[in-house]
Amino acid sequence: MGKKVYVTRRLPGPALEMLSGCKVTLHKRQTPPTRKEILKNVVGKDAILCMLSDKIDREVMKVAGPQLKIISSYSTGFEHIDVAEATKRGIRVTYTADILAEATADLTFALILACARNVVAGDRIVRQKKWKVGWMPDLLLGQNVHGATIGIVGLGRIGSAVARRAKGFGMEILYHNRRRNEKAEAEIGAQYRSLDGLLAQSDFVTIHTTLNDASRQLMDKERLQKMKKTAFLINTARGSVVNERDLAAALKKGMIAGAGLDVFEKEPLGYSPLLRMKNVVLLPHIGSADRVTRSRMAEVAAKNILDVLAGKEPDSAFLVNPQVQR
Ligand code: GLV
């Protein structure tokens, strides 16, 4: 039998078929494996195909054993993996990188439009038979998206895909990034701003930064206060970039107009004051969830494993820690 692979969830697309030459241990339930299950199932594996909800730290790598060669994450975020520890142990860490940029940008716009144009509230009114009068001049008046100003926090691949869509909507595009993105400035007309400048001028502030020490809790009370009262906060990146408690308070006080969230500090979202608020649209972390994208992510995650187990380097676009030496 071939190499041993632990796959922590059933995946849409061709991944399992691609791995059919390996001895695959598949976690079959819909819910994530528990810590105990992960620690049991990684023992003796050559590869782990994990999700963003699986914490792969030093203990997991140690328990797996020295034959572990690759941790392939079915995600673009990799903050759930201790990359430094993997590098020390000579384990390659791969991710699905840019594959999901367009899908996530699509969903970002779904949230922008849903928030601004009362899409969810409108659906509820119709279903609940509260639509009594037919067309009305002032029914569910929302905010214009076309011609409005969007502030993109983090202009990497996903942020740039959002910017391209914003250009199509005739929006003024502001961005804040660690580094200036001259290509986007030239091609899309994005204008660089300090974070405070961006917050003060944008009608839609949308978060596309990775989660790291600098971005954790970036959108706290002070920063939310800097946004326009009429502005919306959109987050399809990571929940912990926003202080959820401060956001709920800001929404309650009318400090900002609303929020569209696909990600949360703790997922799934348990009890939260956000659940009772009308000026928020809440989604269950589905940024990359279109069939084509998820299938392609599965293919890439499996291919990375097959390459490494065959003694080859994975495509450099998907390798998180190129500093690992053979
Ligand atoms: C989704 O959030 C991902 O990191 O793939």
**Poorly predicted segments:** none
Q: List how many beta strands DSSP finds.
A: 12
CATH fold name of the largest domain, please?
Rossmann fold
Provide the CATH architecture of the largest domain.
3-Layer(aba) Sandwich
Helix content: 25-40%
- Total separate domains: 2
What binds here, in terms of ligands, is: glyoxylic acid
Output the CATH class name of the largest domain.
Alpha Beta
Cα-based radius of gyration, to the nearest Å: 22 Å
Q: Average pLDDT value?
A: 97
| % residues in beta strands | 5-15%
What shape does the CA trace take? globular
Helical stretch tally = 12
Terminal Cα span: 24 Å
Q: Write the element-wise H/E pattern from the N-terminal end onward.
A: EHEHEHEHEHHEHEHEHEHEHEEH
Give a description of the structure.
The protein has twelve helices and twelve strands. Helix 2 runs parallel beside helix 3 and helix 5 packs across helix 7. It has two domains: 124 residues, NAD(P)-binding Rossmann-like Domain (Rossmann fold, 3-Layer(aba) Sandwich), CATH 3.40.50.720; 182 residues, NAD(P)-binding Rossmann-like Domain (Rossmann fold). The chain is 33% helix and 14% strand. The mean pLDDT is 97. It is α/β, with parallel strands linked by helices. The strands form two sheets. It has a seven-stranded parallel sheet, sandwiched between helices. A five-stranded parallel sheet has the order 2-1-3-4-5.
